[in-house]
Design a protein that fits this description.
- This protein starts with 10 loop residues before the first strand and ends in a 5-residue tail after the last helix.
- Helices cover 22% and strands 28% of the residues.
- By secondary structure, it is of the alpha/beta class.
- The chain is elongated and about 70 Å long.
- The relative contact order is 0.19.
- The strands form four sheets. Strands 1, 2, 3, 4, 5, 6 and 17 form a seven-stranded mixed sheet that branches. The chain has a five-stranded parallel sheet with strand order 8-15-9-10-11. The protein has a three-stranded antiparallel sheet with strand order 12-13-14, with no helix packed on it.
- The chain binds flavin-adenine dinucleotide.
- The site of flavin-adenine dinucleotide has 37 residues, from helix 1, strand 2 and helix 6.
């Protein structure tokens, strides 16, 4: 493809997002000498909310999400990446030079790696924020093993795939659907379906129970933990208008090389809905970076005689 640039972009790579996917991508690019900017938004990385991570390699005794993220951040800084703390409000990705717009400036680059993560629909009830990581989990795969032989509640807005895996671990599960479900049969014996309204998550230092109303009468259900399995809310609204393809769930569509449908634009981590795990986000960030660097090499070859 022959391209003409009126000016050289400010950066080789802009990474939007400073969770494990964005930090890994930034670290790879910066350490290979590419001028790299990582933009971290006001929304915290989901890793920051994780009390303990037990399934990330290299930490046999577990590590707090905060510490793991901080270590990754330091490594990316040491590799030479620049950081800016601002929300990206718009992007212009279709031309060879990509523009990323924050509230205060427009920044240009040859490539953009989108690693903006994903949100979860909250229940918005008393105790939900207070006990996050203290008995409340949004991730059965991550935290299920902590509830072996315990009593838990699973609250969900659809039939959760997590129910069967949790039923193999917990001794008792109260499954509380948020929306009416068609009749469910064949559930394991330790699962009890409760059609109740949840008023609050209760406890002193961690989750101890759920305050519910059943047939208009208030009662407290004793549980050791509450799993909230609600639909994802992608943060992809800024991306949606850019031409990057997004599926019906709001997840960014990527190939095996983490490339989107737009040349020079890659995505990694939870925003691609490809695993929702730190190890997956890290791996995808690395793949996105390697392919973004190859793309820049190619661009530079083509541009050599045009820009200095
Ligand atoms: C309570 C909890 C426990 C968990 N436990 C585990 C576990 O045990 N094991 C495991 O593997 N995984 C666990 N996870 C999941 C894991 O944290 C995520 O899979 C991982 O953080 C995804 O990384 P990411 O980089 O894709 O996104 P995130 O870590 O969510 O980072 C997203 C980044 O994008 C930025 N951003 C968003 N919008 C914008 C914008 N407009 N402009 C600029 N920046 C923006 C945010 O500021 C943030 O820096 C847990 C998650 C939670 C919430």
């Amino acid at each position: 493809m022959s391209i003409f640039l009126s000016e050289k972009p400010l950066y080789d790579v802009i990474v939007i997002g400073a969770g494990p996917a964005g930090l890994t991508a930034g670290m790879y690019c910066a350490s290979m000498g590419f001028k790299t900017l990582v933009i971290e938004g006001s929304q915290p990385s989901r890793l920051q909310l994780a009390e303990q991570i037990h399934n990330y390699p290299g930490f046999p005794d577990g590590v707090s999400g905060f510490e793991l993220l901080n270590r990754m951040r330091i490594q990316t800084l040491k590799a030479g990446a620049e950081f800016r703390r601002e929300d990206v409000v718009a992007v212009d990705l279709l031309s060879p030079v990509k523009t990323v717009i924050t509230r205060s400036e427009s920044i240009t680059a040859f490539t953009v790696i989108i690693a903006i993560g994903l949100g979860k629909r909250k229940l918005n009830i008393e105790g939900e924020d207070r006990f996050l990581g203290l008995g409340i989990s949004y991730c059965a795969l991550c935290d299920g093993p902590l509830y072996k032989d315990k009593t838990i509640a699973l609250v969900s807005d659809e039939f959760p795939g997590d129910l069967l895996s949790l039923s193999r671990l917990a001794s008792k599960i109260y499954f509380i659907p948020l929306n009416p479900l068609e009749s469910i049969s064949g559930l394991p014996g330790n699962v009890e379906v409760l059609n109740v309204k949840i008023k609050a998550i209760t406890g002193v230092n961690r989750v101890e129970g759920l305050r519910i109303t059943r047939n208009g009468i208030e009662e407290t259900l004793q549980v050791d933990g509450v799993f909230i399995s609600t639909r994802n809310i992608p943060f992809t609204s800024i991306i949606a208008k850019s031409g990057v393809e997004i599926d019906e769930r709001g997840c960014i569509k990527v190939g095996k090389d983490m490339a989107t449908n737009i040349e020079g634009v890659y995505a990694a981590g939870d925003c691609t809905c490809g695993g929702m795990q730190v190890a997956v986000a890290v791996g995808q960030g690395a793949v996105a970076a390697i392919n973004a660097m190859a793309y820049i090499h190619q661009q530079r070859k083509e541009l050599k005689s045009i820009i200095v």
